[in-house]
Amino acid sequence: MDRDQTAIEGARDYARLVQQFAPKPNVARLVGRAFLVGGSICLAGQFVFDFFRQRQPTEVEAIALTLATMISVGVLLTALGVYDDLGELGGMGAAVPITGFANTMAAAAIDFRREGLVLGMASKMFIIAGPVIVYGIVAGILTGLAASLLRLVSGGG
Amino acid sequence: MTGKRLGQFTVQFSRPPRIVGAFTLMGPREGEGPLGKYFDAIVDDYMWGEYQPEKAERKYLEHAARRALGRAGLTEDDVDYFVAGDLMNQIVSSTFSARSLGIPHIGVFAACATSTLGLGLAAMLVDGGFARRVLVATASHYQSVERQYRYPIELNVQHKPTNQWTATGGAAAVVAAEGDGPRISQATFGRVMDWGVKDVNHMGAAMAPAATDTLLRHFQDTNTTPADYDLILTGDLARYGSKLFRELADRVGVTLGAKHMDAGASMYSPEQPSGAGASGAVCSAAVVYGYVLKEMARGRFNKVLALATGCLHNALTSQQGDSCPGVCHAVVIENG
Question: Model's pTM, two decimal places?
Answer without folding.
Answer: 0.93
